[in-house]
Amino acid sequence: MQSAFSLSFSQSSLTLPNRPLSSPNAAPRNLRFCGLRREAFGFSPPKQLNSCRFQVKNRRIEVSAAAGGNGAPSNKSFDYDLVIIGAGVGGHGAALHAVEKGLKTAIIEGDVVGGTCVNRGCVPSKALLAVSGRMRELQNEHHMKSFGLQVSAAGYDRQGVADHASNLATKIRNNLTNSMKALGVDILTGFGSVLGPQKVKYGKDNVITAKDIIIATGSVPFVPKGIEVDGKTVITSDHALKLESVPDWIAIVGSGYIGLEFSDVYTALGSEVTFIEALDQLMPGFDPEISKLAQRVLINPRKIDYHTGVFASKITPAKDGRPVMIELIDAKTKEHKDTLEVDAALIATGRAPFTNGLGLENINVATQRGFIPVDERMRVIDGNGKLVPNLYCIGDANGKLMLAHAASAQGISVVEQVTGRDHVLNHLSIPAACFTHPEISMVGLTEPQAREKAEKEGFKVSIAKTSFKANTKALAENEGEGLAKMIYRPDNGEILGVHIFGLHAADLIHEASNAIALGTRIQDIKLAVHAHPTLSEVVDELFKAAKVESPASTTPQSVKAAV
Amino acid sequence: MAASSSFLSTASLSNPKSTISFASSVSPAPIPSLRRVVFCSPFSHRRVMTVRSKIREIFMPALSSTMTEGKIVSWIKTEGEKLAKGESVVVVESDKADMDVETFYDGYLAAIVVGEGETAPVGAAIGLLAETEAEIEEAKNKAASKPSSSAVVPSPPPATSSPAPAAAASDGPRKTVATPHAKKLAKQHKVDIGSVAGTGPFGRITASDVEAAAGIAPTVTPPPPPPSPAAAPAPTAKATTTSSPPLLPDASIVPFTAMQSAVSKNMIESLSVPTFRVGYPVNTDALDALYEKVKPKGVTMTALLAKAAGMALAQHPVVNASCKDGKSFSYNSNINVAVAVAINGGLITPVLQDADKLDLYLLSEKWKELVGKAKSKQLQPHEYNSGTFTLSNLGMFGVDRFDAILPPGQGAIMAVGASKPTVVADKDGFFSVKNKMLVNVTADHRIVYGADLAAFLQTFAKIVENPDSLTL
């Protein structure tokens, strides 16, 4: 299982020449997205929190009575069964699952619980996008009129919007912390590092031992050379999420999902946007047909222009009465192409792993461009190509698939393994979403990837498509713009990939991702019933539109083959 | 009910006869798959080509069996753009979906017959494709002669440059910087972005600059964030939507030309500046005598007055200043006198740059050149928008006095009336007849105060009354 990095569709990708460019069965996408386990949200209202805590405590007692020691290491020679370095979404997912499996678990956090996703990533950005979606709707007079609604000019208060984002992050962070505390996970504060096999240091000089160790230290925004970030006019997503200003004109370097989402936010709030993309087309990580449509809807009609096939070789913040200056060079010839003058620049060129100071030299592990090498079971590989026993790395730090929910899934997979059940995560079943208006979501292979694979392995590929224009619910919402596309094998009904662009696409993808994860075939799932009228019928139509040669299995349960 | 509506919404999709299937195989497909619709196919339409000229019609394709007409969502290509076989040209909305329509031939999109947002029946020509660049014109003529059915292509405003007596003295040659929206609008309204004067931050061209150049009213842009988080209703552009009085039945409506729109916009903008006026009688006997002398050498009265104003401004820089932000004086380093000129159906203000420094003869030459350019609409932006002070003369019509509106971005404007023989009494009580001309200056009182203006006018009067310095 091989995969590309989140950097690949931003300009940085081309500056990192060693990256495996494409691997046949992998590189599902180079997007990182965010997902939280349901537990994180289950504790939100205080009332519920108390009751949950109570219940959980009861359960712990019961379990310890039964299993003879949840809360105490099963092996007396270690302080913990499992220590996780990094309390982001990946570490959190692993910790919850570990407790469920009866492991005595500690989690080490050097910054804030929740990591990038909750504090500086997907969570606050969803708050901003919620605002931008509403602004967009209220500003669209035509759209409102078609509903028979009259709205006087919509306005916004920047600080109010920014507060919404930071309040949401705080709330989710507290939920996350409480969910771990409630389950009895020890939260240790301080930077964690590996001292040696099964030995971890945190803070100044606290040393603990653990049977197994998971590294889940995540990533930080990647800033290419020549770009001077001042946090005011030249910023990364870390700064942008605080929404300290709404510039008249902002250049966004990188048209991946981070850049796209911010373009949605900024244009809704009145900014004009210029994209700078190193590859020859915008949104290179997406299925070409989807990115074409997305460009038509998300880029062309908005106050956005773009430069493709160029690097921002030098960006200087605004100072001395001069605007932000951006030098563009040709991505291939490296010749100077243009100089842009804008009010601000957002660097969205992907993310770099945060693995410095982890003490990896103590166990003879060499990072590859910062990423910690792992096998398909997330076991860390050392400098000699050997597995390091009892050491795992999940999430952005291993770079397999830089998505919060992928990190969490990897963490759960590791816990499954250390508790005696071999498990290999199918990365092709991990969905991804981009929360623009409308949303983009995807799972599995893109059409070109599927065709390449089909050619190699000698099978036929078919495409099914449905339009949101034919969906009653979408039309009721006046949101008929959208497309769902499925790539599948007509011979056996295997789903290879599903791509959706349209209203609530991010929520619609899971029917497909679950089908891929469980190995459900089209001929079976097409018989399942969907409520009418719902957007989910878009996906239903997709299954029904497919032409599969093999008949439905007589008992749906018999289809168990892994994809 | 639920069941039947479900059927309705899906029936046509699963109709096996539909020509464009939503599930098409990627393996060798004889039918064009969804979103790969091809027009101008030589065999499918009788109407295509009796290859007399190599101009092909682009038809509204039938995207589904139920489709009778289609709406143009957008033209991906613009007129005159080169097309390669297989490229998407236009997006058509059918009853089901938006689909890209691709060209079957190489060539040029010569003319768009059915514009964006308009509908045309299946099979109707929506555009013309020329094989070579040379045939574009021919195709255009053909398109023009076509009785455009329901589709009325709004003729784009002529690509004239903005004649706005606009603000912002640009100094020196500069790279054009235009915002993304400005570029989009320029393309949409066929405005040459290079000819637009930028008034945005750092002199960049903003959307409103392009709109002014294209002669359209600025759209009500997304409201700026209200200054306070309080729920005070945002004072938005409500005022602009006040209803106009009803039209009289026989009235005909003639839309503004680009230039007229620009004038209108500037005039409305001027209302936000607190102005005041000071008049001054100037004795012109000496000036008239000088004028008679230099007239054979090609000197015009305009040049004389501009020169006099320029020299007076040099001594009173505040009258040559402007107030850009309501907080500060912007002193201009050059004295550029804009002179209002009436041209057919419009008004423009060519600028005599460095009016204080250039000698009278050069100034006169320059003026002739500018007037010539103005009449043929050849003025470059810096030749009409770099003024720091404006001169308006209606004396030649016999107007004895009038009052000018201060153009945005400048500190003062001078309105010059006719010079007339006037009976005056001198200090000893002797009557005599002298030529007197009334000069009335309108100024921005945020930066120019009454005494400033009076002193300036006094200097101006002295120069005009002792005009020898003008010829130096």
UniProtKB/TrEMBL annotation, chain A:
**Known EC number:** 1.8.1.4
Paste the cofactor note. Answer: Binds 1 FAD per subunit.
Q: What reaction does this enzyme carry out catalytically?
A: N(6)-[(R)-dihydrolipoyl]-L-lysyl-[protein] + NAD(+) = N(6)-[(R)-lipoyl]-L-lysyl-[protein] + NADH + H(+)
Compositional bias, Low complexity, is annotated for: 1-14
Identification of the protein by name: Dihydrolipoyl dehydrogenase
Domain named FAD/NAD(P)-binding is located at: 80-411
Name the domain of life this protein comes from.
Answer: Eukaryota
Keywords for the protein's UniProt record, in alphabetical order: Chloroplast, Disulfide bond, FAD, Flavoprotein, NAD, Nucleotide-binding, Oxidoreductase, Plastid, Redox-active center, Transit peptide
Automatic annotation (TrEMBL), chain B:
Q: Which cofactor does it need?
A: (R)-lipoate
Q: Does the keyword Transferase apply?
A: yes
- Class of enzymatic activity (EC top level): transferase
Residues of the Peripheral subunit-binding (PSBD) domain: 177-214
List, as start-end ranges, the regions of compositional bias called Pro residues.
Answer: 220-232
Name the InterPro entries on file: 2-oxoA_DH_lipoyl-BS, 2-oxoacid_DH_actylTfrase, Biotin_lipoyl, CAT-like_dom_sf, E2/Pdx1, E3-bd_dom_sf, PSBD, Single_hybrid_motif
What Enzyme Commission number(s) appear in the record?
2.3.1.-
Q: Does the keyword Heme apply?
A: no
Identify the keywords attached in UniProt to this record, alphabetized: Acyltransferase, Lipoyl, Transferase, Transit peptide
Out of the domains of life, which is the source?
Eukaryota
Q: Which residue ranges does the record assign to the Lipoyl-binding domain?
A: 55-133
Name the segments for region: Disordered.
139-190, 216-246
Q: Where is the composition biased (Low complexity)?
A: 142-153, 161-170, 233-245
Q: Which family does it belong to?
A: Belongs to the 2-oxoacid dehydrogenase family.
Protein name per its UniProtKB record = Dihydrolipoamide acetyltransferase component of pyruvate dehydrogenase complex
What species does this protein belong to? Brassica napus
**What are the leading ranks of the lineage?**
Eukaryota, Viridiplantae, Streptophyta, Embryophyta, Tracheophyta
